[in-house]
C-alpha cells in the first residue's frame, strides 16, 4: 500500500492507501447537493487528465492541443494544470493545513477554484487541493510533483470476480448517483454501435438505456442486440455486451464469444444483473386471507429514468472516435 509524504520535507501526509481504478462518478455531479467522498477510505486513484487552474476555453486551445490533453470535442473549459493528480478521501489526509486565502467556494464548502489549498504543516509547501462544496465530490487531489511515495504495508490482493460477487464488494454507497455511470455506459454503447440501430434486450438494460438509445440512434433493420454479460451471469446471444469493469484494476471482464464488450461501472452492472430480492409478506388487518403485498411498498419514481447528459458528453468528448461527423453530431445534441 502507499503512504504519501511531502516532497519538501518528507513528512507523512496520508494514511496507508491502496490503489483502485479511477471512479466513473468523476464524470458528473448533482448540482447543489452535498456529496459523500468520491473514494472509499483506505483507497486512492490517479487521474491522468490535467486538473486545476489556469482554465482555458476550447477556442483558445485549438483542436490539436486539446487532443494532446485527451479532449476531442468541446466540453467545458480545459485545464492547464498538472496531470496525474492523486485522489483520496479527505479523511485519509494527515499533516496538512488549509491555505485560507485559497479556500474559495460556492456556498457550503471549498470548490478548488483558487488552486492548491492544502499545505504541509511542517514546511508550508502547497501539496494538494481539497474540494467539498455542494455540487462537488468530497476529494483531495495531491499534486504529483509535491509528494513522494513512502514505504507502506503490503498491498491488498486483487480480488477475483467470484470474491467480489460473494462479498458484496460491488454494491456501494454511490448507487443513488446511478445516472452518472449510466450516462458513461450509454456513451460507450453509442460508440460501439458505430451508428447502427441497437435492439436492447428486454428487462433492466432496456429500462436503463432503451429510451435514450432510441432517441440517439436510428431505427431500422440489422440492429445490433445489446445485453448484459459477466461473471456469474453468463453470456447471452448478443452483438454488444455490457460487462463490468474491475473496481481495483479498471480492466473489463472479457466475454469468450465474438461479441463486442462495452464497459460499465461494476456496481451498476451488479444492480442490473442481480437486482435485490424483495420478499412478500402476508397481509393482515382487514385484507382477505391469502392476499399478499409488498411491505414496505416499493418506491416508484415520479419520472422516467434519464442517464446523465453531462456524463454522456464528458465520456464522448474524451473518445477519439467523436471526431467522426456522425458521432460529433450526437455529442453536440446530447442525450
- Following the backbone from N to C, one meets helices and strands in this order, namely EEEEHHEEEEEEEHHEHEEEHEEHH
Radius of gyration: 22 Å
Which parts are unreliable, with pLDDT below 50 for 5 consecutive residues or more? none
- Nearest-integer average pLDDT: 91
**Total number of β-strand segments?**
17
User: Residue share in helices?
Assistant: 10-25%
Task: Supply the helix-strand structural class.
Answer: alpha/beta
Q: How many DSSP helices?
A: 8
Taken from the alpha-carbon principal axes, the silhouette is globular
Strand content: 15-25%
Alpha-carbon distance between the two ends: 40 Å
The largest sheet has its strands arranged as 2-3-6-10-9-8-7
> How is the main sheet built?
7 strands, mixed
Amino acid at each position: 500500500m502507499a503512504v504519501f509524504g511531502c516532497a519538501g520535507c518528507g513528512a507523512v501526509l496520508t494514511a496507508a492507501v491502496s490503489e483502485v481504478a479511477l471512479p466513473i462518478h468523476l464524470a458528473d455531479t448533482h448540482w447543489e447537493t452535498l456529496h459523500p467522498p468520491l473514494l472509499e477510505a483506505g483507497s486512492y486513484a490517479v487521474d491522468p487528465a490535467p486538473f486545476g487552474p489556469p482554465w482555458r476555453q476550447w477556442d483558445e486551445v485549438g483542436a490539436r492541443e486539446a487532443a494532446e490533453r485527451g479532449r476531442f470535442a468541446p466540453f467545458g473549459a480545459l485545464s492547464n494544470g498538472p496531470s496525474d493528480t492523486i485522489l483520496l478521501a479527505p479523511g485519509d489526509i494527515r499533516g496538512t493545513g488549509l491555505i485560507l486565502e485559497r479556500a474559495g467556494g460556492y456556498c457550503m464548502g471549498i470548490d478548488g477554484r483558487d488552486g492548491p489549498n492544502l499545505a504541509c504543516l511542517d514546511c508550508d509547501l502547497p501539496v494538494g487541493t481539497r474540494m467539498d462544496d455542494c455540487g462537488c465530490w468530497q476529494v483531495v487531489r495531491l499534486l504529483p510533483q509535491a509528494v513522494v511515495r513512502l514505504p507502506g504495508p503490503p498491498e491488498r490482493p486483487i480480488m477475483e470476480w467470484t470474491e467480489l460477487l460473494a462479498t458484496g464488494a460491488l454494491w456501494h454507497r454511490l448507487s443513488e448517483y446511478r445516472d452518472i455511470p449510466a450516462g458513461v455506459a450509454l456513451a460507450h454503447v453509442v460508440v460501439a454501435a458505430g451508428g447502427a440501430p441497437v435492439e436492447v434486450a428486454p428487462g433492466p438494460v432496456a429500462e436503463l438505456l432503451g429510451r435514450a438509445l432510441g432517441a440517439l440512434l436510428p431505427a431500422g433493420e440489422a440492429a445490433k442486440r445489446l445485453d448484459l454479460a459477466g461473471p456469474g451471469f453468463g453470456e447471452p446471444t448478443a452483438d454488444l455486451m455490457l460487462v463490468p469493469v474491475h473496481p481495483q484494476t479498471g480492466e473489463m471482464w472479457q466475454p469468450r464469444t465474438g461479441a463486442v464488450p462495452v464497459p460499465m461501472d461494476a456496481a451498476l452492472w451488479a444492480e442490473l444483473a442481480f437486482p435485490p430480492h424483495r420478499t412478500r409478506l402476508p397481509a393482515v388487518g382487514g385484507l382477505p386471507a391469502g392476499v399478499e403485498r409488498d411491505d414496505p411498498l416499493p418506491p416508484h419514481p415520479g419520472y422516467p429514468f434519464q442517464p446523465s447528459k453531462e456524463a454522456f458528453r464528458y465520456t464522448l468528448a474524451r473518445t477519439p472516435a467523436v471526431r467522426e461527423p456522425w458521432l460529433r453530431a450526437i455529442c453536440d445534441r446530447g442525450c
